[in-house]
Each structure stands twice: as structure tokens, then as C-alpha cells.
Amino acid sequence: MATPLIFIDGDQGTTGLQIHQRLCNRTDLRLLTLSPEHRKDPQRRAEIINDCDIAILCLPDQAAREAVASIKNPAVRVIDASSAHRTHPDWVYGFAQMSSQQARQIATARRVSNPGCYPTGAIGLLRPLLEAGLLPADYPTNIHAVSGYSGKGRAGVQEHEGENASQAPAFQVYGLGLAHKHIPEIQQHSGLMEPPMFVPAYGAFRQGIVLTIPLQLRLLAPGVDAMRLHACLTQHYADASDVQVMSMQEAKELTSLDPQALNGTDNLRLVVCEDDKTGQVLLAAVFDNLGKGAAGAAVQNLDLLMT
Question: Semialdehyde dehydrogenase NAD-binding domain: from which residue to which, for each copy (predicted)?
């Protein structure tokens, strides 16, 4: 079998650069990239994307749609790291651990949408519980997440690492219009009937995410408690080497969650905290927004496509 040609479109951006660094020394593939003088040449971009075996798009949404539209070669397969196709019915969602069949569907897909960073944590927590019937589909879901500033792309990196870095905010909540573009993705792939309330924020650290979802046990079915929620997550991810569910004992001993704890890895850590006196539960996810939340997921999806 010929060595597959992989084209990274947008390899100068935050995610594209990370993917390029992960792939550049591999011998089981060959990388195609646009030279600097051709990056804004639509004809050259169309030529190279039609010459590759797998294209990885690290582009703004509209540019990603245009890149896909330029593909005339039916053999070209695509991983899109933008949010342009994450709810599209003809695209396979690239979260391999989401269900028992997902990895197989990705491996045979022509079009794969790479998950968003925040949705990775939210869906990772919610979907198993919704599928098991432990969380009702109409639960009034609230999601709060704090990401490193690299989640804002090159603009965030420049803001915090450029010449005016001393003026960068230490913390900023955004998405105050309550219509963040990740909300439809979270709703569709988790199985929620209604859009969740999603409150994202950036902190003054480069990368990493803590995402939390509070639950009130009184709003769940009788007999559903933190132990059952934890057991469901543990069972769902039992065979997923890169998803770890923290034990209830470890969770009880926690005093804080560090968003940077898994930086430099492609792991996703899930936590269930509880106060049995009040019947309150906090679901939490910790991961690297540039790892499992972006480049790590894209490379995992690439490996599945190449199997």
C-alpha cells in the first residue's frame, strides 16, 4: 500500500501547527503543505487538496466550507478541525470514545468533523448518562468552562504573549449572548432535547481546560445518585485508554481542579464530586484544549482513517 499523502490546510494556526509537529517525523505518511507564496492562491490550494489522500482542515469555518467545495477527487478524505460541519448529517463526528461504534464509523468515513474543545468535555460527561437514562434529556443543563488563552487561536496567543501582554486580562467570561457556536454541537451529540446554558471563559494560562456541569439529584429519577453516575461513566470508558474516570475516593479528597494538569497529553479526565447532604453533584472534565481538545483528536482520527 502506498504511503498516504496528508495535506494540512492551515498549518500555521494554533491547531494546524500542533498537528504538523505531531506528524512531521512520522514515516508512515507523507505531509503536503502549501508554500508561503501559495497560501492565498485558491487554484494551488484546490490542486493540492485534490492530490492528497487525507486533508486536515485547520481553517475558519467559511474557508473550511470553501475547501471542501473545491474537492473534485472522490478519493480524498477529510478531517475538518473547524466547527463548520460538526452538526452536518453527512459528516461523522470524530469523538472516538463517544460510543462503542464511533471509532469504526470514523475509520470508514469520507468526511470526519473534529470535535470542539469544550464539547469534548461536555459530551464526554453527558452522553453516557443520557444514553443510560440516568440524566433526563430535558434536564436544565448548565455548563461552565475555563480554557487557556490558546483556545482563542492566534489572537489569544498574541494578546497574552505579544508586546502588550502586560495588559492582557487575567480572566474573562465571554459568550454572554448565550449563543456560543459550540452549543448546537453539544446538544446534538450529547442527546439533550434543549440547548444547554453554556458559560465559557479564558484564563491567563496558555492551554488546558476545566469544564464543570452541576446537577441536582432531586431533579433526577429516584435512586440515581453520585455512585450510579460514576459507575455509568466508569463502565462506558472502561476500554478507553485515554479517558480516565477518577475514583470517588480520590474525588472526595480533591480541594481543587487544575486546568493545566493534563497539558501535553491527549488524555481526558472525568470527575464526579458530591455533597450527599444537599444532594448536589458536580461533573467535571480536565484536558488539554490543544491535545484531546484539538490536535490530539485530529491525529487520533487520522490514525483511524489510515487503519
Answer: 5-106
